Amino acid sequence: MSGFLELLAGPTTPLYLAPQAGVSESPFRRLCRRFGADVVVSEFVSAAGIVMGTARSRDYLRFDEAERPIGIQIFGSDPTQMADAAAFVSEVYAPDFVDINFGCPAKKVVKRNGGSGCLRDLDLVHCIIRAVDDATSLPTTVKVRSGFDEATRDPVGIGLRCQDAGARALCIHPRTRADMYAGDARWSEIRDVTGALSIPVIGNGDIRTGQDARRMRDETGCAGVMIARGSHGDPWIFRQARAALDGAPSPADPNVEERFRICLEHARNAIAFERNPERAIIDFRKHLGWYTKGLPDGRRLRTELFQATTLHDVESLLEGYLAERGTLAPA
Ligand SMILES: Cc1cc2nc3c(=O)[nH]c(=O)nc-3n(C[C@H](O)[C@H](O)[C@H](O)COP(=O)(O)O)c2cc1C
Fold first, then answer.
1. Which residues are CB-neighbours of 113 under 8 A, at least 6 positions away?
2. Which residues of 149-176 are buried (b: 16+ CB within 10 A; e: fewer)?
3. Chain-wide mean pLDDT for the chain?
4. What is the pLDDT of residues 148-180, one digit of tens each?
5. Which residues line ligand 1 (CB under 6 A)?
6. C-alpha 324 to ligand 1 mean position (Å)
7. CB–CB of 233/287 below 8 Å?
8. Contact, 125 vs 158, CB < 8 A?
9. Residue pLDDT, tens place only, 219-258
């Protein structure tokens, strides 16, 4: 059995860093692994892009050995193309599993029946999973929403179809595509799916604190817990979630100095990973925003950080901020 499936079958309730376009890239995945994420997943990669060999798609597939266990997530609505992409990814990149995205709500993806668009046609979902599973010897997993809209909301029915088609684990974000991110994720649906399926079910949605992870496990019986937005500027949430799951005291949030140190380490790795350092700094702005969220006078700092074009600029601004507050003696 693949190591990652053993993890899901074991008693520890693995914590997943969620697939997130533009966020769950290799440097952030490594950071979250260090802070206690047990499994990471790449952002979704277009099967068409993989098959055509576009440089951007291939870039998304790169990962470091330290990230394992890792899943590569693919999306598309053509079973043959999905199968070809899965075969290529398995052979060339050899992740620990291949995950299929049936959750993305973005208009341009749904329009072509990709992501959550597939949830309008469960026969198509079935065909895609079958095709992918036949094309790879790695475990095939899926990530779904509860339905396309209220009329098609049927988390258990969707889960059973995925299981029948060959999915080895299923992650559910219990909102529909029509919900986007509105309202609360319906954790009761995670419990229903967990109760109905024999494959491991990973719960996802609205984990903001370590305690939330424990609450989700206790309320739903899920085999794993996946965190997306709660990790933004807050990769140490995994350490706190692990403590909560184990019934141990929660490790404190890092102080500002420590937070900046982590942010800079993340930035350095992001620049080293990207082929174009200027692009890397621009792409990194969202993380700078998240790492400085809630700081006194944070808005002014963010305005300055968003104009930075080099790592040196970012370092100077963060050092200046600490020096102004007497947290750090100026160099
Ligand atoms: C910026 C961003 C990008 C995302 N990209 C993906 C993606 O590529 N694949 C996917 O399956 N879900 C994606 N999601 C959805 C998350 O994986 C997750 O299901 C959702 O955010 C709910 O979890 P949360 O409440 O912990 O944020 C994305 C979410 C965010 C916020």
1. 77, 120, 121, 124
2. eeebbbbbebbbbbbebbbbbbbbbbbb
3. 95
4. 999 999 999 999 999 999 999 999 999 999 999
5. 18-23, 43-44, 73, 101, 103-104, 143, 173, 204-207, 227-230
6. 36
7. yes
8. yes
9. 999 999 999 999 999 999 999 999 999 999 999 999 999 9
Ligand 1 atom 6: residue of nearest CA: 20
Q: What one-character DSSP code corresponds to residue 116? A: G
Cβ-Cβ contacts under 8 Å for 304 (sequence gap 6 or more) = 317
Place of tokens 């350490």: 239
In whole angstroms, give the CA distance from residue 97 to residue 224: 15
CB 62 within 8 Å of CB 26 = yes
Ligand 1 centroid to residue 19 C-alpha, Å: 6
Task: Kindly give the distance from the C-alpha atom of residue 321 to the centroid of ligand 1, in angstroms, as a whole number.
Answer: 32
User: What is the CA angle 62-68-73, rounded to 5?
Assistant: 55
Which are the catalytic amino acids? 104
Helix (H, G, I), strand (E, B) or coil at 322: helix
Find out whether 210 and 24 touch, Cβ atoms under 8 Å. no
Concatenating the DSSP letter of every residue in 140-203 gives EEEEEEEESSGGG--HHHHHHHHHHHT-SEEEEEEEETTTTT-S---HHHHHHHHHH-SS-EEE
Please give the full DSSP string across 207-273, using - where no structure is assigned.
--SHHHHHHHHHHH--SEEEESGGGTT-TTHHHHHHHHHHTPPPPPPP-HHHHHHHHHHHHHHHHHH
Pair of tokens at residue 259: 């937070």
Nearest CA to ligand 1 atom 2: 20
Task: Report the nearest atom of ligand 1 relative to the CA of 44.
Answer: 8
**Alpha carbon distance 266, 262 (integer Å):** 6
pLDDT band for 327, please (50, 70, 90 cuts): low
